Amino acid sequence: MTKSTLCTPAEHLHRRSFLKGTLLTGTGLTVANFGNLFGSKALAAETQKQKKRCILLWMNGGASQLDTFDMKPGRPTGGPFRPIPSKVDGLEVCEYLPKMAKIADKLAVIRSMKTQSPGHPDGIYHMHTCYKMSERTPHPEIGAVIAKYCGNMDADLPSFVRMGPTGNTGPGYLGPDYSPFSIKRDGKLPNFANGGVKPEVEERRTELYRFLEEEFAKSHAAEPFENHRLSKERAWRLMRAKEAFSLGDDWEKQKDRYGDTNFGRGCFQALKLIEEGVPFVEVGHDNYDSHANNFVCHKANMQQLDPAWSSLLIDLDQRGMLEDTLVVWMGEVGRTPKINNRAGRDHYVKAWTIALSGGGIQGGQVYGKTDEDGREVTEDPVSEGDLFATIYKSLGINHRKKHYWGQRPVWLTPEGSKPLDKLFA
Amino acid sequence: MLVSCFCLATLVLGSTLAGKEKASIRGVIDREISATWKKKELKAAAPATEAAFLRRAYLDLVGMVPTYAEARAFLDDEDKDKRAKLVDQLLADERHARHQAEIWDLIFFTRNPANPSATRKRGRFQEWLRKQFKENVPWDALVQKILLAEEEGSAMFHVQYRNKPEDETVALNRIFLGTQLQCARCHDHPYEERTQRDFYGMAGFLVRLSVREEKQGKDRVWRIEEKSSGEVLFTGAAAEAQPGQKGEPVSPKFLGGEELEEPELPEDFKEPDYKKLKEAWPKPVFSRKQKLTEWLTSAKNPFFTKAIVNRVWAQLMGRGMVHPVDDLNPENEASHPALLEALTQWFVEQKYDLRALMREIVLSDAYSLASAGEDTTAFPKWYDRARVRPLSAEELIASLRVATGFDEAVGKDAKMPSSASSYMLKIFGKPNDGQGRFQGGVDEHLFLNNGSQLRGMIRSKEGNLSHLLLNDEAPWEERMDRLFLSTLTRYPTDSERKKFTAYVTSNEKPQETLEESIWALLTSSQFRFNH
């Protein structure tokens, strides 16, 4: 019989021993040290910050490749936008991405995405897990995988933070330990993270709660009880560390650069969280699903996207963090080359574009090619699995890592997925 | 012990458990389970207290904790047979049907159903399912009804897999036969005797089904129709498939059995123009759906009965004798093969009576063990201690209502604020990692710790728990009985009584400290789990 390897005893012991600043009572029950609980930043300083990180800029609805990084000027599929030269030869970008054009040497643009799920729910699932939704195996989304392999359960902050329109596939077979922690679309904390009662009430009722747990733990050793208590400790730690979510004056200074929008603020929040050691942050941007008025919609979106994305890359670079931080720009689908009779573009998965920066990816390159109208990939098609294998490689995660769903083996990427080695520096 | 094991083996092998010689199945359960303890040299936990049994049985059979009055009635009852009485009463309770329907609805659809635009709102199906459990429709008949989908409201299972016979093949096998076929969809199975042909042979039974939508006023009503022609196409191993490749048709074949014998269609047969049909479609010339249903739900099917017995066992005992419950295969040996076999036979003899099966399991000694002990596993494989499972989101919501006296204060069947319910379904909906290992997320604690919803339920309102306790004239020490029985379904220990009394009375306004006490009890791990 195949044995589950999801949680080895060693891993478990490790996790328990993480709770520094807690006391072990005679019965083995962990009780947080009270001074710490409501004291200063608690464990943050001790947190061993993980090196590899990832920011996913999620273009919800599916951004148009033909109006951003794979333009077809003069062709019937080209649309009205003009391309402008970028810092990279052979990479012209849309006139509404002037700031990105200036730092295009940080970008690796993949023009040859060829994927399988053309709808929103299945596309969002597929592009977050690299598996088809219809399989019904609960695959974890990419943030959960990165939280598991690059995160640190000892940290006060959660390992997977998301904001804005992004879908919510969840941790699947990895379990709630790797659940996304969703904050508001402008990067502010959800209501539940703010204490509901006065600190002195919190303190006294917590003491009562702990008394009850300790009494019970004297006779009940089953692991779920302990997991319940540990999660509660983690919730309290998060509440203590929540100033990481308050941007304060910093934002006032930066908002002109990033753009004073939810997405702009979200990108700056992502930078701050990555600096604090959070390994994965996803920022969603609405709404690219331009079945009608594609060009009005994309022009408006790019004017928010351009300052936020470029400032994020520049700031990561200036802090020396870009090397270890992979920034992924993608959505669930591309858009049709054909412009429909409502001046819209519909969903298209046969040939579309995503972009990567940092994380060991060599900037200033274009990978793959489409034909003159952008209808087919003519060179180096890239599947969902290949893209994820590339992302995992950048983060030092074995993309063929085997897990178990029940008894059945299941891998992080489907059989045959290969990282795009040419992209790496 | 040796003798009893031997007896069991004879019983099972002989399979002629006729008349008075027939051992009660509960006796078989107890003997088989304790035999493995002896063999493995395990010391079983002590029997559960009456209070622990009471809470467990309520959660398992009606999906919520008992009220204070229900708890008192049981604990004060001096009848020797009170457990059997209680179990019969709970199985007949309307809440039992509701709870079972919730459990199975979730198995059928999961929290994220396929074809969501049709399946997300499935009140009619849920209502139909409740009715089946209320009438204790035998399991084989219930599955037949789901597959034939001819009753009003019963169609939703198929609707989920509209135009996806391959997906439905996977689901049917997993849910009703406890077997895993999805690997065979793309390649011949590496270590089981399942080929891609087997897979597509099964899908062939479903390929002719069609989902038809009717509008009834504001409602969408779903009908399952069946064509007389159409085949599944098979293209070979997925890894070698070419885009645009046309497959060859595959005839329906029973899994691990024969090809379906099927009359040829008349030569001049033409399918009606379905698009033009406004009403129900004509019956197919030959119904594959009918044949599949008969084969799948037959007592001769080697998986059908075993799968349900194992699932019900797991529902109550925490872990299937075959674990996980949807992976019956020769490589995955049952922990108690003889017992599973005996229960399977017995269940056929009982004509698939689900309540009878639950009754026997719940009244067995193994079910009635304490959850205390040094073993840390959540679901002990040898059943030597009670399992510890998290309450489902639905059980948690219902139990919080019972414990806080929500309905007494707001009025019977009052709705929870919908925001609270939807938050809780979201936050508590998936409490484990798919292998049964509980990992309460941080979200659930933030919600319980900080959310206004739970505080709102606890806050004193005429008729609820806080209000009753505050207006009780008895000394606080005595009022602790009601506090603990309402929340944890047990009396407080001496030190708990002392501590909680001191806590409540430490404040000039005991309302605040009382509400905080209730909060501590309801967010504790003892409340979070069925143990």
TrEMBL record, chain A:
Protein's recorded name: DUF1501 domain-containing protein
One Pfam entry name: DUF1501
Lineage: unclassified sequences, metagenomes, ecological metagenomes
UniProt xrefs under Gene3D superfamilies: Alkaline Phosphatase, subunit A
InterPro entries assigned: Alkaline_phosphatase_core_sf, DUF1501, TAT_signal
